[in-house]
Amino acid sequence: MRGVPTGNGLQFVTLKAAYVDFMARTLTPQASAPADPQNVSSKESREGDEARQMREAWMASLDVSNREERFFGLDMQLKALDRFFNLDNQPITQTDSVISRDFSHEVRVVAVAAARIARQARALLREDSNAFTFRSYIEHRMLGDRVRDLFIEEQLRQSTPAESLFLLGESFQNIADVAQALTRLNTVSFPLFSSLGQMISRTISANRFFNPMAGDVFRPEIDRLRSPLVAELVRGIADQRLRKQVTITMLAFFRLLRYLEQIDVDADQRDEVQQAVLVFALIHSETRMLVQYLEKEIPELLAGAEDRPHAEDFQAAADSLAFQCTMEMRKVFQQVLREALSVTNTLKLRGTMAAGAGVLRNFFEQAIIVVVQVFAPQTAGRDVFPGFVSKREQSLRLREDLWVLNKLCDAVEQQILKDGLTAAEFGAAIAPLRQFLSYFQNLSFKFVRYSDHDELERFFMVAQSLTDQTAENLGKLNDFRKKLNYFNRFVETTLGHVRHREELRDLPLDTEHAQRLLDQFLR
Description:
The chain is built from 20 helices and no strands. By secondary structure, the protein is mainly α. The chain is globular, with a radius of gyration of 27 Å.
């Protein structure tokens, strides 16, 4: 069995075994999970089962809103924070010169994340928090050294999930305080950053009930095939060997989509928007394991499948998805998110994070549709995801909108060339363009190549800064005329590139429909 690249914190064979065990216990209860030669000792296994059962029972007893989602978020943040310290999971450009790199930005992200974890732990312990806090006060303020030693020893036993969660919250509040202090240094070296990461990893690993890296990778109370159509399709696969591998693949992609839902690009504070890099680090880590599974393990696991036609089609789809996944992750990390933490403008940072999440969400949804269509070729993307837009539909919409934008720019250029242009005339001329730019940003901007984003965003900002009084300042007016002309040439070039996309071959532009859209803005 092959292992994943170093630094992921989990051997792939363990991940595969956990996938299969999860599937066997949830979707095919009549089947027993295959023996795993790399299982831990039976004693450790029993202890792990006991801890899991105690945690699940305790969680079920809590009277808190959105309980399942909050515990999923806590697990995800802990795992993401651990994966963040593997530089291969970060969108940095010079991993070969880390010794001279300043990690102040990264430590700031860690400080905010650790404080958030501490708050979440306290919120989930709402009923017990006062008792635990008082106990902590007694421990630190009033006891002698030997008594305090015994007190700490008792606490570290983590006899209950509540005690375990309290210890987690206290530990991460300490980590947050340390990390916050580190941000006040002139620079944070890689050894210091790495030491902080090792401290965090050990803290998570030592937690009895809230270590997301221990036990099953997927848990029945959290992970599901979050589409009735997909769940029904999987249950309908008669070949058990094939059904297992399809289930594993689907669970993995649905889990990745769920991670993306945790990204908040609309947060007010830059520090909060930056937290998205932790989610991206976790996604990067788990997609590498998934690629290994799709590319290397599935051919071996499907060797004895009885339904050969579907098995061969699924294997071909898996191999293709493995390659595409590698390319998409490379694009997102080397282009879209590149050095994202150094972006100081919050608006631009939001756009960067949203673009990265959009690219990955689209790919993960596309991947699920590809697998579905192996078994149900007539299934459309919207049957699984109501808001799904296929690659062809994306290109069709983008081509039409760029055509309209080009025509609007032509019209505005002509209208603002006249001498003696008044403020009212200028305002009336640019109003349709500004309205369409807002429409374009909300609908089609995400379908543009990332390398074209900067040019578009620069002009969006120019258009937003315009007032009717721009016409009364000849210098500003002439400057806008030049920028508009340059931007329009850029739009024409981009439109030409889109027209040559493979998915638009033999699909001419519907000019009548495009003209009707243009007329809506020119009225």
